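I am hoping you can look over what I have pasted underneath with an eye to the fold:
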Amino acid sequence: MAQPAGSSTPAVTNSTPPTKSSLDIAFFWEKTSLLPPVPMDQWKDAFTIALYAKTNIDVEEIRHFSPKPELVLPAPEATPGGVKTAAQQAARLARDAAAKKTAEDRHAEAVKELKETSASGLKLSAANQKGKSLLYIMLGHEGQKRFKQRLPHVRVTDLQFGELWRHLDDVFLIARNITVERVNLFSRHRPKESIEQFHSALTGLAAECDFGALEQQFVRDLFVTRVNAPELQRKFCVELTSPDEVLRQALAWERGVKNQKKLVKFTLGKGDTDLQVGISDGSHTPSTQSPVKIEPVAALRSQTRSSASPRRNTTNTPCRNCGKEFRPGHLQKCPARGVQCRSCGKRDHFARVCRYNPPTQQPPPRSSDSRSPVSSSKPSTQHPKSSSPSRSSTQTKKMRFID
């Protein structure tokens, strides 16, 4: 239906409720849930800052604002025990009357001052009403519902800002469980964060544990225990360091480790991606670049020797002591260990592989299956022929001797 001309009625639009107001802070409790998103004391701090930044209203001023000064009369002086004289009772009544007169005079001066400074009084009254309205609106839908359920007979329009401020503590302020807060502190570790972030987390958790004067010492001791940096822990265990100096020295040490990593990377070059720095800061933070490591000198020397000369401990290589195939762990299981050589008399090797008195080369034994080329080329009757001439010559000599 078209809106008549000249009508100032705004058109109704279907829009979702905003999550933030003109103060640019989130509502205290907008959606239905078991507990509010943030504690009331933390949300009050954010509301106080936002209210002063956006509207220039100081919460501390309007919290104690009253439209009319209240007359507060002192309590009568307590009557001490025992029988007192009439003079003493008269003196006590006189003192009560003097205290009452003083309170009435102060109230009269406050009323007179409020009338003389009506402009400032009106200003504070307007700030009080505006601050109260913003405070109630910023409770959110669920917060307002919980407020009405807990205080059904309280009318927000009849309250001043200070009264509404105190009612919020009565309704939403949850008593802290000190045991749970301390368990959260003592179970805090340093998974993947810098030293400064870890120290700040411990400080925030310790503030909720009511340690009193021992709070900084607890933070220092837990920081040294859970920092996950052995070199830094040894330093603080040997040296007497105050809680204020622990963070400063730890930050200096962390910067030194990072600078050392950069220096090693620059020195070894960008191609050494398999190297890593030997000193760890304990943060275990993932990095896009490959870390750098300083290998021990003995390891570097062994790598140099192994790369310069071929390794002896390879497969299909005979053992120098027994002649069998050399494999990893063969030296401990070599059958020649402790055995005396029959060729040179020394120990830990067999005669067939003796390097001090090598054995002579024996002709291979003859077999029917495999024969050498020289023996196979000659007829098998060679030996009888070679032995027969020797016997004939011997017989001839004997015959000549007989003749």
Q: What stands out?
A: The longest helix spans residues 86-116.
